[in-house]
Amino acid sequence: MTDQHWPAALAEARLHVVSGKGGTGKTTLAAALALALAAGGRRTLLVEVEGRQGIAQVFDTPPLPYAEQRIAVAPDGGEVRGLSVDAEAALLEYLEMFYNLGLAGRTLRRMGAIEFATTLAPGLRDVLLTGKVKECVGRTVGEDRRGGRRVPLYDAVVLDAPPTGRVVKFLDVTKAMGSLARTGPIHSQSEGVVELLHSSRTAVHLVTQLEDLPVQETLDTVAEIREAGLPMGAILVNRVRPSRLPATALTGAATGAGLGAGLRSGLEAAGLFLKDEEVDGLVSETVEHAERVQVEAAVRSGLDAAGLPQLELPELTEGVDLGGIYELAELLREQGVR
Questions:
Q1: CB within 8 A of 58, min separation 6: which ones?
Q2: Is the sign of the CA dihedral 293, 295, 298, 301 positive or negative?
Q3: Which DSSP letter does residue 9 get?
Q4: CATH assignment at residue 319
Q5: Which of 10, 71, 178, 201 has the CB geometry, 3.0–4.6 Å to 82, for a possible disulfide?
Q6: Measured at the alpha carbon of residue 83, what is the angle toward residues 12 and 67, in degrees to the nearest 5?
Q7: pTM beyond 0.85, yes or no
Q8: Four-point Cα dihedral 105, 106, 110, 115, nearest 10
């Protein structure tokens, strides 16, 4: 199995992009990762760009505005802030920053011109979103007393990115848009985003589960990320369930052959006498469990072949609540996340 620890090289990353097939727990693990990275007095920013207010739901807070605000306190005094990036608000901010069109920009919004522009050029929306993320990564505050240099406001930024089906296009669209504008602020902004996303300061992590479709989509996305020249991080294997059977018993249990008689004998030896239908139910559950373990072993070998670090998170039997997010964050810390 691939080494299941956070590589030391990822300590250099400032931007952690988290993607995954829908339903695998992408937002949940992005939140847990932000908490884990904030432990020990650090400050992280958790950003979402899909307009679903998933961060607010995970942390049980009101919907996030287009403004950074504290959403959680990490162990040992750390802090997690949240931000929901809105493309129209990002464009207004962009127009005011580079063209001093604050009032005119708001007038354009009332006229619907901004929505028209982002619809006419779909890539523009993603450029605005990634541009805002880049601005958050690069923001500084105060001075480093040791060297007189300004220090980053955030120790790390975690991006809850679009799902694997379109995450590479989302991250790389800025390169295409930058080529359309040869000069000016748009070109400079695009160059800055491209440089960040293709550097060691960025790591793209993929969330999956040990099932055929999520694993295959993960492997396909790994290939796309590598082809695009984006830096891969780790694979976060979510909702891992332990095997309740010894490896030597799996094949026989999966067939169910003679399982009922052996199960009844063992139960009766322990003083438990069950009805036929109760024994049949236990046999069915055992066969289903053995089949699942075999499938998971097969798809895990596919993940191992990708040659990437893997971190495992268990299935939370009581569901995912705020306490569960902290539990997952602690498990990430135990596997080396810093």
A1: 27, 28, 31, 320, 322, 325
A2: negative
A3: G
A4: 3.40.50.300
A5: 71
A6: 125
A7: yes
A8: 50
Check if the beta carbon of residue 177 is closer than 8 Å to that of residue 123. yes
CA distances from 201 to 10, 39, 138, 338 (A): 8, 19, 11, 14
Q: Total structural domains in the chain?
A: 1
Range of the structural domain that residue 329 is part of: 8-242+300-334
SS3 180: helix
Interatomic CA distance for residues 20 and 99, integer angstroms: 37
Q: What are phi and psi of 67, to 5 degrees?
A: -160, 140
pLDDT band with cut points at 50, 70 and 90 for residue 172: confident
In a domain, 258, yes or no: no
- Give the span between the Cα atoms of 210 and 13, in whole angstroms: 27
**Pair of tokens at residue 75:** 């162990």
255 domain-assigned: no
Measured CA to CA, the distance from residue 164 to residue 170 in angstroms comes to 10
How many residues in total does the chain contain?
Answer: 338
Question: What pLDDT digit, counting tens, does each position of 102-155 carry?
Answer: 555 556 556 555 565 556 555 677 888 898 999 999 999 866 555 567 789 999
Express each pLDDT in 213-265 by its tens digit.
Answer: 999 999 999 999 999 999 999 999 999 988 888 877 777 777 887 788 888 88
216 within a domain of the structure (yes/no): yes
**What's the chain's average pLDDT?**
85
Q: From CA 159, how far away is CA 18, in angstroms rounded?
A: 6
Strand ordering across the sheet containing 43-48: 69-73, 79-84, 43-48, 156-160, 15-20, 202-208, 232-240, 310-314
Residue appearing with tokens 């959403």: 71
pLDDT in tens, 23-53: 999 999 999 999 999 999 999 999 999 889 9
Beta carbons of 26 and 217 less than 8 angstroms apart: no
The verdict on residue 289 lying in a domain is: no
Q: Closest Cα to residue 170, out of 85, 86, 49, 89?
A: 49
- Quote the percentage of the chain above a pLDDT of 70: 83
Q: φ and ψ at 47, to 5 degrees?
A: -115, 140
